[in-house]
Amino acid sequence: MSTDCDVLIAGAGPVGAALACALAPLPLRVWLVDAAPPPAPEQPDRRALALGLGSGRILHGLGVWPVLADRAAPIRRLEVTEKGWPGVTRMAAVEIGAPALGWVLGDLALQRALLARVADSAVQRHAAAVTALAQGDGMLTVTLNGPNGDTVARTRLLVAADGSDSTVCRLGGLPRQARELPDSALLAQLSTDRPHAGTAHERFAASGPMALLPGAGCGDYTLVWTLPHQRADDLAALPAQHLLPIAQEAFGWRAGKFRGLANPRSVRLRESWLTRATGERVLAIGNAANTLHPIAAQGFNLGLRDVAAAAGLLADAAAGEADPGGAGLLAAYQHTRQADWRQLRQVTDWLPRLFENPSPPLASARGLGLATLDLLAPLKRRLMTHAMGLGGAQNRLQRGAWP
Ligand SMILES: Cc1cc2nc3c(=O)[nH]c(=O)nc-3n(C[C@H](O)[C@H](O)[C@H](O)COP(=O)(O)OP(=O)(O)OC[C@H]3O[C@@H](n4cnc5c(N)ncnc54)[C@H](O)[C@@H]3O)c2cc1C
């Protein structure tokens, strides 16, 4: 068996698996490596992901949307409010003539669908972790540690899709910055007595921002509640019947009466980003490039746009028989992606801070701001377009037409 490939993707999480799907129809030898086993069919999702309309189009282009459409709960409306203050910004899919602003999907359901698609392709999958790199003559030599010990592979491009603690970025010398976050996310399944009709809520409460993402059942939501670490751990340890009234009190009655709460758990939040997402024959995508606070529910959406950009450039390189790890391609990737990365980092940075000061003059100004934004249709439409991942130039995969 040849140990040479054109593109070696390290990490078969949802972002690495999506890139493998995108590259599968191209005339490239592609490897996808991950030491962790793929999620088992019965394994419950770790979290619900809110996907923008733009991500839905990319998943359509990758051929996985038909499998996922039935499980995806549509987000038809979004309401942004602050508890205890009047003022609301409402965004509705009908305002832009779309069927939905986006969808809510389980992370492992998504990863399984992508990996099933990869399994039907010529992409080679290997159960191994990248542990070392060496530059060679127009190739990178990559050490892979698998069940039978170390092997080596040679590749023209190595893609770091290995998550927040990316070994590949470290080995490739990609510079990382990190910000210590005081927050955890408390996640739980909630049921309410009022049909949600596809409404998602982003509610700024005194205890911390709370998101309710609509689920498949008519009153079912996923709760994502940002709290200081200790508070999140303490609440997650409570019996569900004790946590339920605390969550209701914090959120208020905007989504109706909370009737049931299940599977509370707390997750430490992290934030880190690369100041340059490319190195010699290496580029980074997904959490390896940017790990964001989930307040704007954008991490995976951003990672899918990395996939679309990298796949578009690699398709052009393959068509022109150019080097997939060449300096021109790497520079173009960094150039194409950096504005999107910077903007989202800014949003996830200022959004929690904007709502953290409880002083009445500031809170009432925020209420006025939310109410005013609700009336400013053109500005609101622009924000919606960006939040759905439809801002800026869209390449072929982003338009859902691939390869
Ligand atoms: C509470 C919470 C809520 C969120 N909600 C949303 C949301 O609503 N919408 C949204 O868009 N995003 C959301 N996100 C973000 C989203 O979950 C991530 O952006 C996404 O899962 C990142 O996927 P990834 O494939 O880049 O990384 P990962 O899922 O971390 O995958 C990395 C893979 O790399 C493998 N790996 C590690 N080291 C190596 C190595 N050395 N060699 C080979 N493989 C390796 C690992 O085994 C793993 O399989 C949320 C995040 C959190 C924490």
Search tags:
binds flavin-adenine dinucleotide; globular; 31% strand; D-Amino Acid Oxidase, Chain A, domain 2; alpha+beta; FAD/NAD(P)-binding domain; 11 helices; 2 domains; 403 residues; 21 strands; seven-stranded mixed sheet
Secondary structure elements and pairings:
Elements: E1 4-10, H1 14-23, E2 30-33, E3 48-52, H2 53-61, H3 65-68, E4 73-75, E5 77-82, E6 88-92, E7 102-106, H4 107-119, E8 124-126, E9 129-135, E10 140-146, E11 149-160, H5 167-171, E12 176-179, E13 183-192, E14 199-205, E15 208-214, E16 220-228, H6 229-236, H7 240-251, E17 258-268, E18 271-274, E19 278-279, E20 282-284, E21 290-291, H8 299-319, H9 327-354, H10 360-375, H11 377-387
Parallel strand pairs: 1-2, 1-11, 2-8, 5-14, 11-20
Antiparallel strand pairs: 3-7, 4-7, 5-6, 9-10, 10-11, 12-18, 13-16, 13-17, 14-15, 15-16, 18-21, 19-20
Helix pairs in contact: 1-4, 1-8, 8-9
The chain binds flavin-adenine dinucleotide.
Cofactors, ions and other ligands in the entry: flavin-adenine dinucleotide
Name given to the CATH architecture of the largest domain: 3-Layer(bba) Sandwich
Give the assembly state of these chains: single chain
CATH topology of the largest domain, by name, is FAD/NAD(P)-binding domain
Name of the CATH homologous superfamily of the largest domain: FAD/NAD(P)-binding domain
Tell me the overall shape: globular
List segments where confidence is low: pLDDT < 50 over at least 5 consecutive residues. none
- Please tell me the overall pLDDT: 93
The number of helical segments is 11
Radius of gyration: 22 Å
Helix-strand makeup class: alpha+beta
Q: How many structural units, i.e. domains?
A: 2
Number of strands: 21
Cα distance spanning the termini: 27 Å
Tell me roughly what share of residues is in helical segments.
25-40%
Major sheet attributes: 8 strands, mixed
